[in-house]
Amino acid sequence: MQVPTGRFERRVAKTEALELLHLGESPTPRVEAITENVSPRGARVITDSVCAPGAFVWLGAPKEHLSLPARVVYCQRLGENKFAVGLQLNVRVEKWKMPRRP
């Protein structure tokens, strides 16, 4: 029997540089992040900044031509100044560009 994880859609491993803007803070901090995996409704990113669960951020992924709001679901400390952040996207991203195979 498979244990439910709370996810409805499969995540795909993908590394992509992006930028997070912490909404509701003044001035709005910009934070660099790298995706670890993605799905149409979420992403797990690695960053050097704490992100409060429940907070809203603006996700910018220039190579993907994405700029959209997201909600922080969790923030897990990985080590000194490294955090894994789970993001729930407020809009569905049907197709993250997948890396080309040689």
Radius of gyration: 14 Å
The number of distinct helices, counting runs of at least 4 residues, comes to 0
Shape field: globular
Relevant CATH superfamily: predicted glycosyltransferase like domains
Characterize the largest beta sheet: strand count, sense, and whether it forms a barrel: 6 strands, antiparallel, barrel
Mean pLDDT: 84
Helix-and-strand structural type: mainly beta
Written description of the protein model:
- The protein has 102 residues and is mainly β.
- Helices cover 0% and strands 51% of the residues.
How do the helices and strands line up, and which of them pair or pack?
Blueprint: E1 12-13, E2 17-22, E3 30-39, E4 42-47, E5 56-61, E6 66-79, E7 82-89
Antiparallel strand pairs: 1-3, 2-3, 2-5, 3-4, 4-7, 5-6, 6-7
Task: Write a brief structural summary.
The chain is mainly beta and 102 residues long. The chain has a single domain, classed as Thrombin, subunit H, CATH 2.40.10.220.
Features:
single chain; 102 residues; mainly beta; Thrombin, subunit H; 6-stranded antiparallel barrel; 7 strands; 51% strand
